[in-house]
Amino acid sequence: MRRPRLRFTGQLLLLQLAVVTAVVGLGFSLFGTLLDRQLSTEYGQRALAVARSTAENPVVRDAVARWAADDRAAPETGTELATGAVQQQAEAVRGRTGALFVVVTDDRGIRLAHPDPTQLGRPVSTDPSVPLAGGEEVVEQRGTLGESARAKVPVFAPDGSGVVVGAVSVGIDADVLASALRADLLIAAGYAAAALGLGTVASVLLGRRLRRLTLGLEPEEMAGLVSEHEAVLGGIAGAVVAVDATGRITVANDEARRLLGARIGPGRTLDDADVPAPLRHAISDRLRTAAPTTAPIDQPLLVVTGGRVLVCSVRPVSRGARDLGVVLSARDRTEIESLTRQLDAVQTMSSALRAQRHEFANRLHVVHGLIAAGRSVEADEYVRTLLGSGPLGTLLDGLEAVRDPSVQAFLSAKAAHFRERAVDLRIGAQTWLPELVTDPVAVTTVLGNLLDNAIDAAVDAATTERGPVPDRWVDVELLSDAGTLYVTVADSGPGVPEALRERLFEPEVTGHPIGSGRGLGLSLVRQVARATGGDVWLAEPGGDGSAGAVFVARLPGVLASRGGATAGPVGRPAGSPQTEASWR
Asked: What is the main EC category here (predicted)?
């Protein structure tokens, strides 16, 4: 049976315990070694101080000098030494200091004082050459009384001649050093045990925190999750950006960097990453008001950045009661919106062609009737008249003031669509657009949305409290000024309600749902205009009983420069069939 493998957190705990134990053990061993050396030095210096004071004792110096000058044999002097002044002084010093021994010798190394009287008059058991040569030494040696830390110093003649007449050796029992070392090591062992215990507790707590942070996952499981995470983020068609509760980006996929900018990346703040202002404000507001919930914001955000139209949503993320931040998702709607506009143009052109088919059929009936009646001359004149007018010219008067073919076709198609809804689309008399359009997507997006809103307002006016509206119209005026296009759109609708005038361009205020194919709302129109460096504003709210709202758009840099082309002030088309009073 296969033995179950220890989990990673358990392995980490054991490794930490082993490291802590090794560190504490190594530290304890080092401390013990240093302490042993320190105690040996300390007791050696203590023995040296006792030996020096004994060697400088006048009584000892005089007595040692006399014995050094006496040639009597040592065995005959043992009794005299035991009661002599040197032995008494040495024993007194030993009693006061607690030394193991205080030994005094003459210049031949014969003991003149020793704790054991039987050793008096005999040579010392250790080498006395250093002190007898006038030097001092501190060593650990074994003598007749056992192991000790001893200090040896010379005894000089009392006459000041500097002649060495003997030596003093003071020893401290090694058991005393060992007892002091054991006492200090016991204290150090207590601290080491406490450190080991703290290290163990810290390791256990760290292991628990690690399990909590990793949700109990093993390293290979986390590696698999990271791989799956990267694969999922890379496979998502839209942009995904995760922002933590402090406003710092933690996750961003490649699509986010493509749509929102190359500076989007983990570790950056929203300001550092140059996140578009609408998204930055939405994320900041969401972070300030975020509650532990997974509900997204009520209305998707429409953002124009880098020439792209993005549909974004901001969703808070939490785990239990802990707020983790928000996740921003964005989808590129540029191609969809472009195709929607093209489809709208095709639909309006199809409506125009149906109207023209009926018109051509009626004209062919007239020609057929003239020919059947034998009135060929009248038929020929009628055909020549038709060839001179052309079908599109009958749809929209004043279109010749617009040079750009894409704008011409767009307005012609819109005119046919307006006629089907019983709304008259009129070109303002001040329209003057001799340049070609360099950014048709921005122009048709702004112009198309304003016209769509205007026709809806004109149609809705028929059911207002003002009663039936006999004349439903939308006026559009296009003016150019040094590469800047000014668009003015007015309608016969009921105007903008006063409650919506201050919030008209906010993202959540729109008359068309996202994805309906009928425009992206005034919020996006303003963003498109501001992306070109211009703007869109409500010039006149309307609703005074005479006419509807007037919107003005300024689009700089969307026209090809031709030099010398200027235009008058932007306002309502002054030469419109409507009188000035009818405009307001």
From this structure: transferase
